[in-house]
Amino acid sequence: MHYQIQPVTPFQQNCTLVWCDQTRRAAVIDPGGEPEVIATLIEQLELIPQYLLLTHGHLDHVGASAPLAARLGVPILGPHRDDAFLIKTLEHQCELFGFPPVEPFTPQRWLTDGETIALGEQTLEVIHTPGHTPGHIAYLNRASGLIQLGDVLFRGSIGRTDFPRGDHAQLIASIRERLFPLGDEIAFIPGHGPMSTLGRERRTNPFVRDPA
Description:
Elements: E1 2-8, E2 13-19, E3 25-29, H1 35-44, E4 48-53, H2 59-62, H3 65-72, E5 76-77, H4 84-87, H5 90-97, E6 116-119, E7 122-128, E8 137-141, E9 146-150, E10 153-154, E11 157-158, H6 168-179, E12 187-190, E13 196-197, H7 198-204
Parallel strand pairs: 3-4, 4-5, 9-12
Antiparallel strand pairs: 1-2, 2-3, 6-7, 7-8, 8-9, 10-11, 12-13
Helix pairs in contact: 1-3
């Protein structure tokens, strides 16, 4: 599995292209904005788009979903159904954060914990990681030791829980009980900022590190 991170929107959200090197089949994870930039990158890398995958329903992660899906001719999958209320309130989110209006959409399919998504010869595992939002999910490729985490965990920090239906205790449980057991060597792409590993955060992150 190969990947390339393309920050988009004023929030510098990490839109990520992941693809199977053997088949060039690709998924776009969290197309938050700037659909033309994302589409051009797909063309430059000579990829065959197959899905748009969403980690959660916040505007800066889904804003370009409708126009990009139409342009690429691919379905939108995810997040978990518990984030449907966020997808339905994109107009309000735009007003709240001062973004121009975005085209509304409904995912072709909500995703659930434990299911898998085939991407060429590679597989992405869906892990439900609530807390930042109730329907937040992550995408794990075990073969390459890589996971796309959205806004659950960052290098040295964790996701916010002061948005509607955020839950701090649930977020900490998602990190400690669902992510850290995957292994210290797993590298992760966060929704914003630089990459890290689960092991580094388990040892050093002040919000979730192991007790001394």
